Amino acid sequence: MARKWGQHFLSNADISRRIVEAAQIAASDQILEIGPGHGELTTHYIEKVQKSVLLEIDPALAGRLRQRWALPDERMAIIQADALEVDWAALGWLKPPMVLGNLPYYASKPLVMKLIEWGGFKRAVLMLQEEVARRLAAAPATSDYGLMSVLFQRRARGRLLFIVEKKEFRPPPKVQSAVILIEPRLDGEISVDRDPSWFIAVVKAAFSARRQKMTNALARRFPKISKEQILSAMRDSGIPDDKRAQEVPPENFVSLSQKLYRTTL
Asked: Is the bond into 97 cis (omega within 30 degrees of 0)?
């Protein structure tokens, strides 16, 4: 079933321009834009690039975009669909595209996770709620660092670029927004686990009791793995015995999940 996003439209053209400029788009680039709305971002790049694909869930807005830009099909495609239900890899890219978007607040987390699991993009510049942006870009041992940070940073790097005030939208949203730059990690930059579901289970278990040492949280979640095996896997992964989950970088979690998995074989 299609989702009604209820997007808040960005009314400040200068901020729209800054978002597009942050992507450092070249004439030879291809663009995937998620939720173009009235074309606030689109207008700053559409005449300059080789190819663009716009995913817009609202049929009325999709129709207006087609009327506004009558470009050849090979240069511009406007697809009226839910971006969460579209196979982004199957959109006919000749090269990894740039991704732009003012993401709807309730769908920002699944859209970002879909983006990084796909990984077939050059870079992305997205606007989403400030709280989510800070969590994605957070460093270990900071208040914003948590489960979402680890799952995201296993596959990508994020850098918060700037804050967008509520007054810059119509209608004004209830929360503040932020623009984040996302780049996929290169193969081998972090040794990716062979079983993502196991990795996710380990990270969720570690963060299930943030105030406790990881050893205790993992032992409670995986009772068939002895505490001695857990401690050994942590030490081999460069994680001291007394560490809590929010102090551990993503690469150490990847190593830990691999070593814990081997104890179950």
From this structure: no
